[in-house]
Input
Amino acid sequence: MPGNTNMSIRVDSELKSQAEKILSQFGMNMTGAVNMFLQQIVRERAVPLSLSLDSSCAVYADLLSAQTDRVQGYVGRSAEEVLADMRILIEKAERNG
Output
């Protein structure tokens, strides 16, 4: 079983206070949040940034997730492929409509 170690970091006092208030809404403290953050980094081999109380952050989190996918080799589809599929679907809908 691995042992514990202490970490010492410098953080702006106002930032720390604001973060603690948000973490308390999740029922968490700073130590638990940092441990969870580090465990997720190791498990996913990426920096996770999707935990949010504000849904406006979701787009940014999705962009970070997509960036991580690309770094890990996901190629995806080109715009031309997507447009070609849309044209096919539109043609089918017009024939059946």
